[in-house]
Amino acid sequence: MKKELNILLVASAFSTFVYSMLGPIYAIFVEKIQGGILEASFAMSIFSISAGILIYLVSKWEDRFKHKEKLLTIGYLLSSIAFFSYMLVSKPVHLYIVEIIFGMAISVSSPLYDGLYSKYLDKKKFVSDWGIWESMSYIISALAALSGGLLVNYFGFDFLFFVMFLLSLVSVFVSLLLVREKR
């Protein structure tokens, strides 16, 4: 496996872990900030709509961008900012703003990641190389879901968000290795 692919996998592992820590307990967090089912649904809708629209627009621009590895790092950095911002959320409207930031982060990093991953695939092993990513994603998500629940149970949501922020910074720094490798 190419070195660039390994770097992408490690960055993605941390990113996937962080995103998956909150998933199963997201609605409980929304309740904590005086929201309910509708606010949780609205927040996820805001994220999905903003990500969907922005992915379409940003990915067309990214095709022409020369330094794609640098943009990936910016996407991971935007995610880190959003994870940090969760600590500042005290009502649903704040959460909606954070979800827009996440939509922006995903619009930058998701298509880029897929494009770079595809670029560095071994042409004779592209199915198994994608299989590594898929397998890793599910296993990491399972571990993260459990970890997130344990952290909130014993230390609370603010601690979880701080841990998520720190771990998301690992993706930023790992992706910088890809920028360095590209030079």
The biggest beta sheet is recorded as: none
**Terminal CA distance:** 19 Å
Beta-strand content: under 5%
Describe the oligomeric state of these chains in a short phrase: single chain
The helix content is over 70%
Rounded mean pLDDT is 93
Low-confidence stretches: none
Rg, rounded, reads 17 Å
Helix-strand pattern, N to C? HHHHHHH
Structural class: mainly alpha
**Overall strand count:** 0
Written description of the protein model:
The protein is an all-alpha fold and 183 residues long. 85% of the residues lie in helices and 0% in strands. It has helices at residues 3-22, 26-32, 37-62, 68-85, 92-119, 126-155, 157-182. Helix 1 (3-22) packs antiparallel against helix 7 and helix 3 packs parallel to helix 5 (92-119). The longest helix is centred in the C-terminal third of the chain and has 30 residues, at 126-155. It is globular and about 50 Å long. It starts with a helix and ends with a helix. The relative contact order is 0.21. The model has no long low-confidence stretch (mean pLDDT 93).
Question: In brief, what are we looking at here?
Answer:
This protein has 183 residues and is mainly alpha-helical. It is built from 7 helices and no strands. The longest helix is centred in the C-terminal third of the chain and has 30 residues, at 126-155.
